[in-house]
Amino acid sequence: MRSRAILIAIIVVLAAAASAFAERVSIRTADGYLFIQNGEKLSFACEVKGKDIKPNTDLGNPGYDVDGHVIQLLFVVNANFDPSGKTEAGKLLALHRDWEVDYLKSVFGPDVAPKSETVKLADRDVLFWNFNRPKFTTDFDRDAFATTLLERDIFGVSTPVAVGEELSAAKERLLAVMRTLKTSDKPYDIQAIAAAIKKGETPKL
User: Fold this and answer.
1) Do the Cβ atoms of 66 and 59 come closer than 8 Å?
2) Residue 20's pLDDT band (boundaries 50, 70, 90)?
3) 42 alpha carbon, distance to own chain's centre
4) Is the pLDDT of residue 10 over 50?
5) Residue 193 predicted with pLDDT over 90
6) Alpha-carbon torsion, ordered 157, 162, 165, 171, to 10 deg
7) b/e sequence 23-40, b meaning 16+ C-beta within 10 Å
8) Could you tell me which of 192, 198, 130 has the C-alpha nearest to residue 161?
9) Pick from 71, 82, 178: which is nearest to 128 by CA?
């Protein structure tokens, strides 16, 4: 299972930065899992959907095994990648990507070269970026990420890309989660949401 161990090690790279949060919970739904993070100033929720899905507890960040793929959620506070706190908002997604790539180079070597594009989802800008692993396992040869701003912090989704898998499939896997992202300036009532889901109702987010 060496390839599995390497896969986990790479994904957990993005868990290296401390993220402040008050409460995290994952609630089973009819289609997958609803993930909620309640914070002091900003809370958010997103849904990871799939036919065969279960939480992956081997990851440092919240993650799921979804229909044969791994999807990891990440939340990185601004101070980790923007110590001055003065970077223009429009440059923060690229700054975070470059900060992550600096670490990835220490793992894979200096040849890590990300390719990026900005995707517009409703009123939200998402940075989709990926890179080929200079060192790769027999199972995975690329990693893909989709990140967006929550005020000045980063919410993101990542997935390893299997050898022979079309990048477009991995991209859609990540954007499907991004499309469900909701935010609130107040903590979500987790008990009420769980009760609504149990009744087969759509919770208010």
Assistant:
1) no
2) low
3) 17
4) no
5) yes
6) 10
7) eebbbebeebbbbbbbbe
8) 130
9) 178
Residue with tokens 């990300």: 114
pLDDT of res. 11: 41
Q: CB-based contacts of 98: which residues, under 8 Å, 6+ apart?
A: none
Instruction: Enter the pTM of the model.
Output: 0.88
| Res 9 pLDDT > 90 | no
Q: For residue 40, what pLDDT is reported?
A: 86
Cα angle 61, 63, 69 (rounded to 5 degrees) comes to: 140
For residues 172-195, one letter each, b for 16 or more C-beta atoms within 10 angstroms of the residue's C-beta and e for the rest, the string is ebbebbbebbeeeeeebebeebbe
